[in-house]
Design brief:
Chain lengths: ~290, ~375
């Protein structure tokens, strides 16, 4: 028997209005428990940030977290020409390091991914091992080398910082290139494409998320580096921001307010870079539809 | 002419291609068929220069192209996996080759439009591959190869994902294009109909070897061995156990309760094995009530299954424990469990060595004329 469909008088009600929607049970012990734990942890990490924000505008900033007596003087100090120059130096150093590292890592990763290389396995293992070794253990011989070659300036240091990020970047990018089906390249080679063309218009666009991550890693790696610029850059006006930050601490006193303000300014470029690259991260799963 | 000369492809200690000998003539439409994993794609990729043969040579006319990079071979290929560029629109996928070769922009746009209409993609030019259905992707792959006039056209199952109607249309389209332009084509397929209707010649592969290369008609009429016999033709050829004994000019055959003799001129070789396998196509086994008069040999069995396609009915008959598939007229009033009489003509039989599977039969007299392939003449 077919039921007669009643012409609905109130047109606002959709035809499914009398049905109870399916719902996932919102409250369960594991959900409540995990949310409590996560909240506790996030508070733990949020307190230092709160201190940073408050201290940077507090006239009498100390190491305690308290309500501030508002002032802008710490920011004014932070933006003094010397401090600003240090930020600019850091920016240059990090951009150079990140660019050099990412470009070199891209080519290296491509070779490791696609070419036949003798002892590829052991070499890759070696690279993986190196990416875990802090470069600081080599700081003394590096200093000797740099000083005897007269390289105790900004750019050679930037290159070195780029190199320190290289092993990890190679690994990161190689994983992305590995995921690209070879057929794609072969299809291009058949069309008489040259190697550089394949790299540029097939591999590069499909590796973008990996390159973005690698570039960000290279940038942050150089941006946060303290010891290497401190040792390898001899001139004060080429010095990087972390070293400058350390300058707010001297033998007799610590300028908490200035440290906080400068730290906040110092963290901004990384945030900006992350936001700028975030579209590339999202472009992540571009391989859809390439092969069946 | 393309010639494979003793070509092997070995992965580790597994021979994917085993001592391959093959000639593809200029302007020919060559079809590769064979079960999955038999080495069709591998052969195609060696021809394209994407895989290096482990041993042997590949010749193009008198030139050794074994080591020639794929870019210099002037081939266009449809990959089995499609291999579309996922970050480019359909339009840019189609235009990739010509753009790389630096052809004039206006001409490229023109050709993209033409090819898009050929494969029915006009409305999808702005989409990216991940926004397409499987069949649409396959058409992009096909279009990307068709946009150019190469010396050799390689198509690896280019229609496998299309619906029946579209497949028929594209089949004609490709065959038509090939015949018009006269470009040497190698076409891989699993589809019997595609193989039989499109190819000038068909190469049947199995386990890395070519078992037979011949015209569709000859392959069907005179399979070189049991594998080819059962692989070509649908439904499958029946294989029946039989015993042979030669008496003078003729050979006596005992098979599923019937005994008959065939003229010795049908069978090659002096010392015939005593036990053989008979091959007979379902089309050649008839119901007594619907049989040509030349069919003289009878078998009796019980109907075990009926498959109707509409235009014809295939009936599985159990004859002394062996299932025999036979063709009945579509209106045949047949029920499972019924006893039926079947007849066949011994001339339609294929004789295969029970051990090697090779045919024991000589070319049937009067059928030996090969429908010789003549390459199409390119129009102007
Ligand atoms: N890189 C490889 N390493 C090892 N074995 C391989 C490799 N590539 C292919 N093979 C093997 O070679 C054989 C032939 O592969 P091929 O791709 O040519 O099969 P095919 O005839 O195209 O099958 P299908 O119809 O399924 O596409 C297969 O058994 C496969 O496992
Ligand atoms: Mg294949």
């Amino acid at each position: 028997m077919t039921r007669e469909i009643q012409p609905s008088r109130s047109t606002e009600l959709p035809p499914w209005s009398h049905l109870t929607p399916n719902k996932v049970n919102r409250w369960s012990f594991s959900k409540v428990f995990s949310n409590i734990v996560i909240s506790a942890l996030s508070i733990f990490f949020a307190v230092p940030m709160l201190w940073l924000a408050l201290a940077s505008v507090d006239k009498n900033a100390t190491f305690q977290t308290k309500l501030p007596v508002l002032t802008a003087e710490h920011y004014i100090v932070s933006l003094e020409s010397g401090n600003l120059a240090a930020l600019r130096n850091s920016l240059v150093i990090s951009l150079v390091a990140s660019t050099i590292g990412t470009v070199a890592a891209f080519f290296a990763a491509y070779s490791f991914s696609r070419h036949h290389i003798v002892w590829k396995g052991p070499i890759l293992l070696g690279i993986l091992f190196l990416s875990g070794v802090p470069i600081t253990i080599l700081i003394v011989p590096m200093y000797e080398m740099f000083s005897s070659a007269g390289l105790l300036t900004m750019f050679p240091t930037a290159v070195l910082l780029g190199v320190t990020a290289l092993p990890f970047q190679i690994y990161l990018i190689k994983n992305f290139i590995d995921a690209i089906p070879r057929d794609l390249e072969e299809a291009a080679y058949i069309e008489r494409a040259k190697t550089w063309h394949v790299l540029w218009s097939v591999i590069l666009p499909l590796t973008m998320p990996g390159l973005a991550s690698a570039a960000l890693f290279g940038f942050v790696n150089a941006w946060g580096s303290f010891l290497i610029p401190l040792v390898l850059i001899s001139s004060d006006n080429q010095q990087a921001a972390p070293v400058r930050l350390f300058g707010f601490v001297n033998a007799t006193s610590i300028d908490y307010g200035a440290i906080a303000a400068y730290s906040i300014i110092y963290s901004l470029p990384v945030v900006v870079l992350y936001l700028a690259l975030s579209r590339q991260f999202k472009a992540g799963f571009v391989l859809g539809g390439a092969v069946r | 002419m393309i010639r494979f000369e003793n070509v092997w492809k070995v992965y580790g200690n597994y021979a994917a291609i085993y001592d391959l000998q093959l000639e593809v003539r200029d302007g020919e439409f060559m079809v590769f068929v064979g079960p999955s994993g038999c080495g069709k794609t591998t052969t195609l990729k060696m021809l394209a220069g994407l895989e290096l043969p482990s041993f042997g040579r590949i010749w193009s006319d008198d030139k050794d192209i074994t080591l020639l990079p794929s870019g210099q071979r002037d081939v266009a290929m449809v990959f089995q996996s499609y291999a579309l560029y996922p970050h480019m629109t359909v339009e840019r996928n189609l235009a990739f080759g010509p753009t790389v070769r630096g052809e004039p922009k206006a001409e490229i746009a023109e050709r993209v439009k033409h090819v898009a209409s050929l494969v029915g993609l006009e409305s999808l030019l702005r989409r990216r591959p991940d926004e397409l259905s499987g069949g649409q992707r396959q058409r992009v792959a096909l279009g990307r190869a068709m946009i150019r006039q190469p010396r050799i056209f390689l198509l690896d199952e280019p229609l496998s994902n299309l619906d029946a109607g579209l497949r028929t249309r594209m089949r004609t389209e490709i065959a038509e294009l090939q015949r018009r332009v006269g470009v040497t084509t190698v076409y891989v397929t699993h589809d019997q109909v595609e193989a039989m209707t499109m190819g000038h010649r068909i190469a049947v592969f199995n386990q890395g070897r070519i078992l037979q290369v011949d015209t569709p008609a000859n392959l069907y009429r005179a399979p070189a061995n049991k594998f080819v016999g059962t692989f070509i033709g649908s439904p499958k050829m029946n294989i029946l156990p039989a015993a042979l004994s030669a008496t003078g000019g003729s050979v006596d055959v005992k098979c599923l309760g019937t005994e008959f003799s065939v003229s010795g001129q049908y069978l090659a070789g002096k010392d015939l094995p005593s036990s053989v396998e008979l091959g007979i196509r379902p089309d050649d086994i008839h119901w007594t009530k619907d049989a040509p008069s030349r069919c003289t040999q009878k078998m009796q069995g019980i109907v075990g299954g009926v498959e109707t396609t509409g235009s014809e009915t295939f009936v599985l008959v159990n004859v002394r424990g062996t299932e025999v598939n036979s063709k009945f007229p579509s209106f045949a009033p047949i029920r499972i469990g019924q006893t039926v009489d079947l007849v066949f003509d011994p001339v339609d039989l294929h004789f295969f060595d029970a051990v090697t599977g090779n045919t024991l039969r000589k070319d049937p007299p009067g059928q030996s004329e090969r429908s010789e392939f003549r390459p199409a003449q390119p129009i102007n």
